[in-house]
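Hypothesis: this fold can be encoded by more than one sequence.
Test: take the structure tokens below, design a sequence, compare later.
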């Protein structure tokens, strides 16, 4: 149940922070809700009855059937051990009632603007499942409850199913668009006049890929389309990309070699009869690579290649300029739309990463870049602020690593346990890659004994 109210801060929704011990969606921020019980079969539609009952049990708010407005439907994929067919309803907070945290399943509950919740998730303060995040992104575009209610009829028409046997996570699928959700950039953050840019998000969500790999389709009506990062070799996703490229796909560009960005490239290239341009020669089809300063053009659209190593040694960013005379940066995994990226030691390098962030900052300033189009996560509408956060985050992590060494940490794993104690342990192997890169960086800039004694540990093959 998406409870909504208007406040002095704008549109707000009621969110629950679930306990870490919950068997499903532990530690996640969610909307009130629950499973249909036999008691819900008595009377009106059991799904709506369940929504009303669960809302009362978890918040104390009493709703009527007429208060409910369908918004979305999500289904977990077949490979998930716990599967749910989930309906989301919008409801206006009834006058004279107050919501309270009474479920016993949550650490706390609170009213929040969608924008504030998304910023908290992006910063790593809270965690959400993809359905919650997707709905909050949609609500962030509405300013009042009345705006949301007016949108409900349209939202219900595109009720979503989700998941494929090839994906370990959630996928929202427009029932009228086939097996993959196709998002036009104008709908998810870019300014008007960017109809030549499309985002096709791959159905491969996870801790490292967020809500999936972002495949960017850049099209010129006369010349055809260019694809940046075709993503994993998941057939429905590749079909959606090819459909977006009509009438023809003329080239594929890879921001870096990782398979969640590059695996589908050869398949698409064979079907379209086009080249694949990449910094790593092993991933090229055709003679052209991606050298700094090269200009890739398609009609009135140009992409200037920027060498931005750090995440990987072959990482590239692309300065995109189009007929709307707006400059954007496609950043791959150098800068994500939410959270922070991993320095993939030993291929990644923190010193190079700092240099690349500085290069991107100069480009944003000199070329008046308005948005970052990342390899994962939402579009970034404050490029300089986000790059500044990335820089400060890395500097803070370095300080934390120094403190861990001073406190007696003797291996990269021990540093991770101290510095990333609040991070999901499933992400610790990736965090260790970044720690190894940080230790190597500190070894070059500071020859202090605590760093020297980890030199041998850092030279081992990373896990």
């Amino acid at each position: 149940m998406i409870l909504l109210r208007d406040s002095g801060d704008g549109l707000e929704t009621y969110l629950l922070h679930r306990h870490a011990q919950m068997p499903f969606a532990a530690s996640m921020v969610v909307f009130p809700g629950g499973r249909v019980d036999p008691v819900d079969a008595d009377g009106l539609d059991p799904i709506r009855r369940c929504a009303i009952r669960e809302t009362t049990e978890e918040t104390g708010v009493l709703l009527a059937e007429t208060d409910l407005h369908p918004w979305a439907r999500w289904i977990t994929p077949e490979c998930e051990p716990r599967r749910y067919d989930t309906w989301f309803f919008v409801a206006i907070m009834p006058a004279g009632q107050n919501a309270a945290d009474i479920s016993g399943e949550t650490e706390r509950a609170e009213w929040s603007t969608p924008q504030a919740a998304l910023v908290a998730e992006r910063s790593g303060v809270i965690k959400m499942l993809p359905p919650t995040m997707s709905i909050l992104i949609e609500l962030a575009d509405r300013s009042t409850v009345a705006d949301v209610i007016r949108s409900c009829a349209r939202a219900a028409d595109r009720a979503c199913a989700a998941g494929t046997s090839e994906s370990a996570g959630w996928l929202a699928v427009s029932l009228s668009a086939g097996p993959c959700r196709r998002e036009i950039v104008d709908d998810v953050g870019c300014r008007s006049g960017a109809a030549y840019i499309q985002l096709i998000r791959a159905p491969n969500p996870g801790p490292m890929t967020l809500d999936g790999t972002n495949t960017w389709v850049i099209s010129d009506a006369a010349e055809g389309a260019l694809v940046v990062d075709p993503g994993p070799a998941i057939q429905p996703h590749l079909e959606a990309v090819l459909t977006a490229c009509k009438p023809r796909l003329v080239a594929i560009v890879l921001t870096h070699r990782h398979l969640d960005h590059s695996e589908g490239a050869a398949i698409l290239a064979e079907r379209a009869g086009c080249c694949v341009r990449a910094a790593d020669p092993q991933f090229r089809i055709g003679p052209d690579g991606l050298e700094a300063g090269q200009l890739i053009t398609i009609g009135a659209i140009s992409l200037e290649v920027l060498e931005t190593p750090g995440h990987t040694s072959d990482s590239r960013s692309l300065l995109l300029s189009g007929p709307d005379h707006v400059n954007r940066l496609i950043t791959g995994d150098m800068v994500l739309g939410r959270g922070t990226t991993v320095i993939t030691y030993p291929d990644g390098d923190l010193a190079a990463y700092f240099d690349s962030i500085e290069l991107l900052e100069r480009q944003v300033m000199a070329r008046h870049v308005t948005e970052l189009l990342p390899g994962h996560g939402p579009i970034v509408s404050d490029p300089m602020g986000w790059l500044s956060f990335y820089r400060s985050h890395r500097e803070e992590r370095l300080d934390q690593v120094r403190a861990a060494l001073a406190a007696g940490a003797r291996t990269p794993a021990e540093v991770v346990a101290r510095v990333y104690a609040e991070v999901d342990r499933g992400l610790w192997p990736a965090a260790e890659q970044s720690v190894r890169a940080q230790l190597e960086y500190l070894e070059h800039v500071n020859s202090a004994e605590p760093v020297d004694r980890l030199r041998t540990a850092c030279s081992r093959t990373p896990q």
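The longest helix spans residues 383-406. The longest strand covers residues 10-18.
Hypothesis status: open.
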